[in-house]
Amino acid sequence: MNLFLTGTDTGVGKTYAASLLVRALRRAGMDTAPMKPICCGDRADAEALFEACEGEVPLDYINPVWYRTPAAPYTAAVIESRPVDVALVRSSFERLRSRHRSLVVEGVGGWMVPIARDYFVADLAADLGLPVGVVVLNRLGAINHAMLTVRDIERRGLSFAGIILNNVGSTGGDVGATTNRAVLEDLLGRPVLLEIAPGQTDLEFAVA
């Protein structure tokens, strides 16, 4: 399995989902490598992915570009007077792809978060060419954000892998949280790829 994970927003659980996927795929016999091309703020997301692959992939391979400013990459780059090295991101990705049959790449923030003035997470996903999974935090408002993201993925001609519906960190207790899955499946005409339950720490995959 190769996957680029984006989210409908920041803080929707991309790293949680990516870590679950990496662990499950590796346990199923894949040589899955994680990647978090850009970190802004601390490096906790990349460190979580480093743990998920049991340290097999060096941290600097997982996360080649790191800003200390907790903001969108473009904003952090302006503040730190250091443009995002997109060429480094691409070369780091190619290095991992040449060594691993399976990759899970986690984007930064949401689909249209700017990496440079004229280059967004969506453009990075297109450059890397992996199927795109969309992590959606299961809460009121999720359908709007999910549909906007999916429609743009499709408009760009990219491969949409499916929705990962995340209940970890969801406030729940509203109609949206109990109906979002059914409504999204109806609107998209396909099943949710994966639903993560509160407290879930394991996934099981049968890999052919």
Write up this protein.
The model has no long low-confidence stretch (mean pLDDT 94). This protein has one domain: P-loop containing nucleotide triphosphate hydrolases (Rossmann fold), CATH 3.40.50. It contains eight helices and ten strands. The longest helix has 14 residues. With 208 residues, it is an alpha/beta fold. Helix 7 links the parallel strand 8 and strand 9. The strands form three sheets. The protein has a six-stranded parallel β-sheet, sandwiched between helices. The chain has a two-stranded parallel sheet with strand order 3-4. Strands 6-7 form a two-stranded antiparallel ribbon. The radius of gyration is 16 Å and the shape is globular.
What does the oligomeric state look like here? Answer: single chain
* Major sheet: arrangement of strands: 2-5-1-8-9-10
What share of residues is helical?
A: 40-55%
State the CATH superfamily name.
Answer: P-loop containing nucleotide triphosphate hydrolases
Write down the CATH topology: Rossmann fold
